[in-house]
Design goal:
The complex is a heterodimer of chains A (about 120) and B (about 110). Chain A is mainly β and about 120 residues long. Chain A has no helices and eleven strands.
Chain lengths: ~120, ~110
């Protein structure tokens, strides 16, 4: 039984560089969510996909952030021109469509980003 | 962004003691969930609650969905050292917002002394 996987687990980058993270959801799940978690806080919603369609983006998702889910399977989150304030844990979660009766989200292990 | 009010912020207990934590919100939610997170890892789902008034157990864990739909609590009975971690409540499906996205509390840090 394969859960949600994320790659890489850790990323250290210099300010101004671009980074890209990947998330592979549970195979039959058609919803995929991205969250950001800073130290001492709960995760905060960034964006989500229903299949390949990006249905909502948070105000937290500045123009430097872009997410894709081109074939409705894996997703990527790219941050351009990273800033020190981008340092956080980036979490991915997946779920079945709520119309199936549940939208319970299962999280991956996260990608820890450190911007120097 | 909006977060739920989760309390207590931290707890230090002896092994074998019972634990109780709760979450309140100014908004109504359609689903409440409880997660546990270990350092450097993603949250792991403990219990999901789908109906107001629902009381659900998972082993030593019991959680309730408040009748007003604005609160939930989690109890852990007979705590053991591996219960150590950060516990988060999350609400889903608040009116006027995305049905799917989760709004999290700030977490309760649980320390269990053997």
């Amino acid at each position: 039984d394969t859960g949600v996987s994320q790659d890489p687990r850790h990323k250290i980058t210099k300010r101004g560089q671009n980074v890209t993270f990947r998330c592979d959801p549970i195979s039959e799940h058609n919803r995929l969510y991205w969250y950001r978690q800073t130290l001492g806080q709960g995760p905060e919603f960034l964006t989500y996909f229903q299949n390949e369609a990006q249905l909502e983006k948070s105000r937290l998702l500045s123009d430097r952030f872009s997410a894709e889910r081109p074939k409705g399977s894996f997703s990527t989150l790219e941050i351009q021109r990273t800033e020190q304030g981008d340092s956080a844990m980036y979490l991915c979660a997946s779920s079945l469509d709520w119309r199936a009766g549940t939208d319970t989200q299962y999280f991956g292990p996260g990608t820890r980003l450190t911007v120097l | 962004g909006q977060q739920l009010n989760q309390s207590p912020q931290s707890m230090f207990i002896q092994e074998g003691e019972d634990v109780s934590m709760n979450c309140t919100s100014s908004s109504i939610f359609n689903t409440w969930l409880w997660y546990k997170q270990d350092p450097g890892e993603g949250p792991v789902l403990l219990i999901a609650l789908y109906k107001a008034g629902e009381l659900t157990s998972n082993g030593r864990l019991t959680a309730q969905f408040g009748i007003t739909r604005k609160d939930s609590f989690l109890n852990i009975s007979a705590s053991i050292p591996s219960d150590v971690g950060i516990y988060f409540c999350a609400g889903q499906g608040s009116g006027g917002t995305s049905y799917g996205k989760l709004t999290f509390g700030q977490g309760t840090i649980l320390t269990v002394h053997p």
